[in-house]
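I am still getting used to backbone structure tokens and would like to learn alongside you. Label the sequence line and the structure token line clearly, so we can match residues to local backbone shapes. Go ahead whenever you are ready, and we will take it from there:
>
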Amino acid sequence: MATLLADRSMRGALALLLAASMSCGAATPSQAQTVPIPKPAPKGRDMQISASEPQRTPMTTGATQTVPPNPVIPDPRRNLPANIFATFDATQKAQAAKVSSYLSSLQTLVGNFVQVGPDGSKTKGDFYIQKPGKVRFEYDAPSPIAIIADGSSLAVRDTKLATQDIYPLSQTPLRFLLSDRIDLLKDTNVVSVTADDVFISVTIEEKQALIGTSRLMLMIGARDGQLKQWTVTDPQGYDTTVAVYNLDSSKKVDPGLFKIDFTNYSVPPG
């Protein structure tokens, strides 16, 4: 029973990460390969770190960092502006442009990640990005989860349960990271741009009439300009944070990693 609950918790965290606007149950995958998504656990945690508080672990510096970072958990009491007509000063525009330029410059990116779910649980793994639109997340054992985007569709695969959910990539927050070229201030609804000595943070807000408001906060290093982490906030206000490290943007990636097997996994073997 404990194992089953852990698997369900993992799938709930993945739903928040990949399809925040769907996690409240108002939408379903584009194919009938359904896996139940539980309501996220309350956000109470033993540790709370402000997004503006300096990280207490080594900064990510390309492929040199071997120790997993301690993800910076946004303060749940934060109150971001929701004005779609938000204006920014010259400094904020320059900071947003820096993030846009960095994201647009990437063609491939591989590395490791640490994911923190709404209940504070941590999982680790490896990821591979090939722009535009392709990504693969492989979670360390004993997790049976793999996430694959092939440029148009995104699959959440569970090899233990032999199930797979398919979502349109265009409906997941990952599309902003996987866009070939992006100007955040022009192409998205940016509601917040902040910076300190550690991070430049840009928060994007999406509103859907029947589902609610979700947010994606991107954070890059103020010193090295590299991606550090992102946080997805679902319409219910629950956060899923992913911190990345050991980044390598020069490594060639096998195209076969992004191939989705559309076999029906809905019936477990045996």
User: Anything to note?
Assistant: The CA atoms of residues 133 and 178 lie 5 Å apart. Residues 1-13, 19-28, 30-62 have pLDDT under 50 and may be disordered. Helices lie at 2-18, 90-105, 174-178, 184-187. The chain has four helices and eleven strands.
